[in-house]
Amino acid sequence: MFYKDERLALFIDGSNLYAAGKALGFDIDYKLLRTEFMRRGKLLRAFYYTALLENDEYSPIRPLVDWLNYNGFTMVTKPAKEYTDSQGRRKVKGNMDIELTVDAMELAPRVDHIVLFSGDGDFRPLVESLQRQGVRVSVVSTIRSQPPMISDDLRRQADNFIELEELRDVIGRPPREHQNERSDAYETQD
Length: 190
What we know:
Layout: E1 7-13, H1 14-24, E2 27-28, H2 30-40, E3 42-53, H3 62-70, E4 74-84, E5 90-93, H4 97-107, E6 113-117, H5 124-132, E7 136-141, H6 152-157, E8 160-163, H7 168-171, E9 172-173, H8 176-179
Parallel strand pairs: 1-3, 1-6, 3-4, 6-7, 7-8
Antiparallel strand pairs: 2-9, 4-5
InterPro entries: LabA (IPR047140), NYN (IPR021139)
Protein name: NYN domain-containing protein
């Protein structure tokens, strides 16, 4: 479904891709992801969208954001809004759909193929509009999680659906909590 000479752009809905990978039991290696899609076509841009908590001194996503920024990704961030719901639970809201949509519409005349890493059904009208402009759209998400992470409408609208689970060997790594289990292996010797 990819042609070597086509101009590609990646649009990554960070929280959606993270949730899909977690549901499948693996983390995304973004260096491998970028390399994989550079192999598939002429990668013009790789966008990553995420909201950041503005009042936290340390955000667990900050190292990833910094790494992506220095390694060829165009970072699009905005402050997340924190609020308390009617049951008194702390909630965070940080939807990046509008930013992703505007960027995709602006870039559409300069690309042949957009790869959208999200299963959010709100993107179906965007995909339809991009297709009317002559852009092919592949959507990366999963139907293998319970519940599936992709909207049926979005999957049907896309030119190509790429099952995230099938990319595991190419772009995945084990979740972080499993990587540090053997910390006792580094005992000091006297």
